[in-house]
Amino acid sequence: MEMANSWTADLTSADVLQFAEGILSGESNCIANLSNLAALLGQAFRRINWAGFYLREDATQDLVLGPFFGRPACTRITPPKGVIGQAVQMAQTLVVDNVLDFPGHIACDAASRSEIVVPVIVNGKIVLVIDVDSPEYGRFRSDDQMVLEMLADKISQAWPSMTWYQ
Ligand code: SME
Question: What is the dotted CATH code of the domain comprising 13-161?
Answer without folding.
Answer: 3.30.450.40
